[in-house]
């Protein structure tokens, strides 16, 4: 979830520049010199994130394939990028300001789509995750009830609306997520909370 900030054209943003920004409650990221600034997510985004995190957390703990983390959690690619995916599964728990190998340790990165950030999630972040070799990148559209799955080398996403299977290295069995059930629960919770 990110929007470009209005910055001087000559400024090339690096992770250290982002870490030097004041803590003002916004999410700051940079990719290839571009600063991305995210406002607070809407409630539907957070509900979808929470439901998916609960599923992934149990799976990765049970199968001991890593740790599931939600933003804010920095992932760095040297001086080229600093991102905070909405959700990611990391082989080992990253530490603050971890070294440049951090992003390459991600097994899965997930962004919950927002109308204001769709272009960046689908293009800028997707390109970064594919370039780095993140095994899977999911773009979750809670409004349309679907997931776009990207893998390194993909030119088009696999669009899923019924079931999502994930089989990370080291797991003794794949995870199967019934997307209809997941999105029905998101809709139910949002309805109960009376939020979008």
Q: How would you write the strand order of the largest sheet?
A: 4-7-8-9-10-11
Structural class: alpha+beta
Oligomer: single chain
- Parts with pLDDT < 50 across at least 5 consecutive residues: none
Radius of gyration: 16 Å
Q: Give the topology string: H per helix, E per strand.
A: EHEEHEEEEEHEEEEEH
Overall tally of structural domains: 1
User: How would a crystallographer describe the biggest sheet?
Assistant: 6 strands, mixed
Q: Give the CATH topology.
A: tt1808, chain A
CATH architecture: Alpha-Beta Complex
**Coarse shape:** globular
The share of residues in extended strands comes to 25-35%
What is the first-to-last residue Cα distance? 16 Å
For this structure, what is the CATH homologous superfamily? tt1808, chain A
What proportion of the residues is helical, as a percent range?
A: 25-40%
Let me know the average pLDDT. 86
Q: Could you name the CATH class?
A: Alpha Beta
Number of strands: 13
Give the helix tally.
4
Structural write-up:
With 196 residues, the chain is of the alpha+beta class. The protein has one domain: tt1808, chain A (Alpha-Beta Complex). It is built from 4 helices and 13 strands. A 6-stranded mixed beta sheet has the order 4-7-8-9-10-11, sandwiched between helices. Helix 2 packs across helix 4. The two termini are 16 Å apart. 38% of the residues are buried. The mean pLDDT is 86.
């Amino acid at each position: 979830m990110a929007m470009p900030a209005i910055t001087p054209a000559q400024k090339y943003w690096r992770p250290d520049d982002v870490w030097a920004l004041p803590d003002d409650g916004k999410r700051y990221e940079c990719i290839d010199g571009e600063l991305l600034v995210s406002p607070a997510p809407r409630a539907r985004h957070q509900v979808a994130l929470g439901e998916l995190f609960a599923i992934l957390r149990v799976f990765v703990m049970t199968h001991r394939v890593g740790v599931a983390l939600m933003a804010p959690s920095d992932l760095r690619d040297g001086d080229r990028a600093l991102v905070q995916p909405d959700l990611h599964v990391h082989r080992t728990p990253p530490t603050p300001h971890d070294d440049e190998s951090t992003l390459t340790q991600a097994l899965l990165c997930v962004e919950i789509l927002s109308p204001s950030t769709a272009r960046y999630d689908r293009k800028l972040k997707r390109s970064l995750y594919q370039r780095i070799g993140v095994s899977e990148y999911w773009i979750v559209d809670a409004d349309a009830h679907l997931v776009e799955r990207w893998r390194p080398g993909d030119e088009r996403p696999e669009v899923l609306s019924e079931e999502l299977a994930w089989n990370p290295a080291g797991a003794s069995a794949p995870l199967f997520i019934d997307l209809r059930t997941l999105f029905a629960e998101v809709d139910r919770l949002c309805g109960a909370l009376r939020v979008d």
